[in-house]
Amino acid sequence: MRRDQRGFSYAWTALVFMFLVVPLVWMGIQIGRLQAAKGELQKAADAAAEAAAAMVDVDAFKASGALVFSGDVYPTAQAYAWRNAGDLPRRGVFPRVAAIVPDNASRTVRVVVEADLSPLLGLPVRASAEGTAQVRSSVR
After folding, report:
1. Residue 128: exposure state from Cβ atoms within 10 A (0-12, 13-18, ≥19)
2. What is the pTM of this model?
């Protein structure tokens, strides 16, 4: 390589680094944040499902086999989802209980939790997680 061409190779390397490597590193960081947020959202959904399953009226369940909630289950499930969302609320991501679905056949309660991850990622991304909990027919 001639001496007068050395500057060109440095410029070329700088351009490659700026337009390829930096965006790839940024994308890797964003994917890591997304996966961590989805994990926290899954924990929130699991906790909300356990809370909803604990609110099943045991006497009505034993008598009819139907899953009937005692009390207002949505605020309780929402509170458990928020408490178990890790540091998402501190970062501006607030999980919301979207659905609570009792399944009489399998004796389970399924809870869907959704969140807008835009404040965390800077991109318009929505995520959801489902948690399922088994209903126990006796009180511990």
Report:
1. middle
2. 0.82
